[in-house]
């Protein structure tokens, strides 16, 4: 068998493996959606029982609003449960190319995917969302507008804040994982800093209320997350270099004649 044929077979095997793992992810996501339907109503009741939702009288402007509510909360539940599984499938896909200690190290990150996602949601819901609603309420009051919201409008506004922030809280873990499998390193992250800052500022301004204080309170934590990620990447990278050096010294000691 020629070398080109072997390479083609290798590519086909990798594509087949990737497709199989994507099918696993889709299956878990669908299962999470089904389970999320049972949690949708309790979560919805909790959200509308807390300020500022408890001060509004929500209206339904479409027969599909109730279905949309269930879908929104079910998707949030499904995503929070599926993200660790996605990380595991990514780990399993690249696992054959990793060394033994790299496999063990990266596997430990997976449970924290769920923890950071929940932390991001809590930060967005309990800190960012109240600021956003307070800002919009002040503007509406100044303009003499009566606040009469559709439930879909309210939840869409809320989810547009919560979901991006929850995903952004995964940044340190993603960077640690990519550093551990040698796709990223702190040197590359420092070179990307200005572009990363620009992207994070753009995201922070997009999801926060349009005033300087809110933009500042959202953007600064995102930048700190990035710098914390670079710090974690540096720690992992130094350990990698130390292990590589130790392995090279051990190899040279065992094969003295291979060194010219």
UniProtKB/TrEMBL annotation:
GO BP of this protein: intracellular protein transmembrane transport; protein transport by the Tat complex
GO terms of molecular function: proton motive force dependent protein transmembrane transporter activity
Topology within the bilayer: Multi-pass membrane protein
Cellular component annotations (GO), alphabetically ordered: TAT protein transport complex
Membrane-spanning residues: 22-48, 68-88, 109-133, 153-183, 195-212, 218-237
InterPro entries: Sec-indep_translocase_CS, TatC
The organism's place on the tree of life at top rank: Bacteria
Intracellular or extracellular location(s): Cell membrane; Membrane
Keywords: Cell membrane, Membrane, Protein transport, Translocation, Transmembrane, Transmembrane helix, Transport
Primary location class: membrane
Family membership: Belongs to the TatC family.
Protein purpose: Part of the twin-arginine translocation (Tat) system that transports large folded proteins containing a characteristic twin-arginine motif in their signal peptide across membranes.
Entry protein name: Sec-independent protein translocase protein TatC
Organism of this sequence: Paenibacillus agilis
């Amino acid at each position: 068998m020629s070398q080109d044929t072997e390479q083609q077979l290798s590519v086909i095997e990798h594509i087949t493996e990737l497709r199989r793992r994507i099918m696993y992810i889709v299956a878990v996501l669908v299962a999470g959606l089904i389970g999320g339907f049972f949690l949708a109503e309790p979560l919805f009741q909790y959200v509308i029982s807390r300020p500022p939702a408890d001060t509004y009288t929500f209206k339904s402007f479409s027969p599909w609003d109730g279905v949309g509510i269930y879908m929104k909360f079910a998707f949030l539940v499904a995503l929070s449960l599926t993200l660790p599984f996605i990380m595991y499938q990514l780990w399993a896909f690249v696992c054959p190319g990793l060394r033994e200690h790299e496999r063990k190290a990266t596997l430990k990150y997976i449970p924290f995917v769920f923890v950071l996602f929940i932390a991001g949601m809590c930060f967005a819901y309990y800190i960012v969302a109240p600021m956003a609603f307070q800002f919009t309420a002040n503007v509406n009051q100044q303009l003499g507008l009566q606040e009469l919201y559709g439930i879909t409008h309210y939840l869409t506004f809320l989810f547009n804040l919560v979901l991006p922030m929850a995903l952004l809280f995964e940044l340190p873990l993603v960077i640690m994982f990519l550093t551990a499998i040698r796709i990223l390193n702190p040197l590359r992250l420092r070179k990307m800093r200005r572009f990363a800052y620009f992207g994070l500022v753009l995201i922070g301004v997009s999801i926060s209320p349009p005033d300087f204080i809110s933009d500042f309170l959202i953007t600064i934590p995102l930048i700190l997350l990035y710098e914390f990620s670079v710090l974690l990447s540096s720690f992992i990278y130094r350990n990698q270099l130390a292990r590589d050096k130790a392995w090279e010294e051990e190899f040279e000691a065992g094969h003295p004649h291979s060194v010219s």
